[in-house]
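I would love for you to help me understand the pair of lines that follows before we discuss the fold together.
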Amino acid sequence: MPSSTTTPVEPQPPAHPRNGLDRFFKLTERGTGVSREVRGGLATFFAMAYIVVLNPIILGSGTDKFGHQLDTGQLVTATALIAGLSTILMGLIGNVPIALAAGLGINAVVSLQLAPKMSWPDAMGMVVLAGLVLMILVASGLRQRVLDAIPAGLRRSIAIGIGLFITLIGLVDAGFVTRNPDNAHTTVPLGLGVGGRLEGWPVLVFVVGLALTFVLVVRKVKGAILLSIVATTVLALVIHAIARIPDGAWGLTTPELPDSVVSTPDFGLIGEVSLFGGFSEVGVLTGALFVFTVLLSGFFDAMGTIIGVSEEAGLTGKDGKVPGMGRILMVDGVAVAGGGFGSASANTCYVESTAGVGEGARTGLANLVTGGLFLLALVFTPLALVVPSQAATPALVVVGFLIMAANIRAVEWDDPTVAIPAFLTMISMPFTYSITNGIGLGVLSFILLRAATGKIRTVPWLLHVVGLCFLVYFLLGPIEQLLGVS
C-alpha cells in the first residue's frame, strides 16, 4: 500500500542502488534517501525521549519485597542504553523505522506487581524469561502465523486504533486533555485542560505547535514535523525564560538550557538478574502467571505497533504482510529479554516511531539515528531533555490523523462480523490506554460474531488459540482468586 504521509515526492532516484549503504538499507528500493532517514530518526527520538525520564520514575517508585528501591541515576543509564542498542539492532536486522524502548504498562507491572513479591533481580528475571519465550515462539514460526491469522480488516483497524491511541497520548502528555480528579465526583474521566479550560503557557505552546505542524504538512513543506518540533522547542525556551514558569508546569522535561550538557552514566544495574529466583519466592504457578502477563502484553503490543507503523510507512505488501517480519519479531523478543537483563524492564516497539515515518523514514537507517541519539543521551542526558512534551506531542496528533485517513476506508464496514470487531479494536486502544486490550477485544468479538452467524469455520484455528489466551488474560483476576494465587 502506498504511504499516507504528505512528505513531498523527491526527484526519482536511479534504478539501481547508488552505494553500499543504499544497497544494505534498500533506500532506493523504498523511495527514500539519507536526508529523509536522518530527519525521521531525529523526529522519532524527540517524540520518545521522554522515556529516559519517565521509566526511571515508574521503576524507581516501586519497592521490592525486601524494601529496596532502584537507583534513579542507574535507571536513566539502563533505560537509554537498552533503548539505544535495541533500536539500532532493529535497524540493522529488521531494516524498519521502528524504535524500541522500555514499554509503558509493562514497567508498571514489574514495579507494582512483580517487585513487591520478590527482589528486583528476581522481577527482572521474569522479564528475561518472557523475552526468551517470545524468541522461541518466533523461531518456531508461531508468532508469524498468529499475525497472519488476523483478518485484513482487523489488521487495518489495529492501525487505526494505534492512530487514535497516539493522538490521545499526544493530547494527554501535552496537558491539552487531563484526567478529572476522583474527588470531583464526575462520571467524565477526562476533560479539557484544567477544569474545562486551557490554562498556562505550556498548553499554548502545544496549540501553536499543533497548528504549525498541520500548516506545514498541508503546505507539503519538506521536514514539516521536525521543523515544527525545533521551532516549538525554541518558542518554549523563550517563553520559559521570560515568563518564569514553574518547572512542574511543563511535565517531565523543562525547556531550559542546562548548566552542564554532560552527565556520567552509571552501569550498576546491568546484569543484576536472577533468572529463576522469583519462582522460589512466589511459587511456580504464580510465577508462570507473572511471566504470562508480561509475555502476552509484549506479544501483542509489539505486533500491533509493527502493523500500524508498517502500514503508515507503506512497507506492507498486497497481501498485507510485512517483509522480514520474522527478523523484526525476533529483535523484539531480544529487546524484551535485553530490557530485563539491563533492569530497564521489557523493551518493545514504540508507536511514537510514526513521528519519524511521518517525516519520511522508510528503513532501518532512521533507527541508527534514533538509537545513536539514545546512546549519546548516556552522556548528554541534560541536553536531550531540553525538548518539552508540548513541542514533541503535536507530531503524534498529526500522525494519528494520517494513519486514520490512510486506513479507515479499507475496513469492510458492510460486513458486521468485521466492522464491529474493528470498531471495538479502534475505540478500546485509546479508551483503555492499551494496544493489547484493543487487539484482544477485536479478536474475541470477531470469533463470537462469526460463530453467531454460522461462519465459525472461516476463523483460522490459530485465532481460536489466540482468543483463548486473551480470555485468560481478561479473566486473570478471577482465575488467580480461584487458584488462590492472587
In short: The mean pLDDT is 87. The radius of gyration is 22 Å. The first strand starts at residue 100 and ends at 102. The longest helix spans residues 284-313.
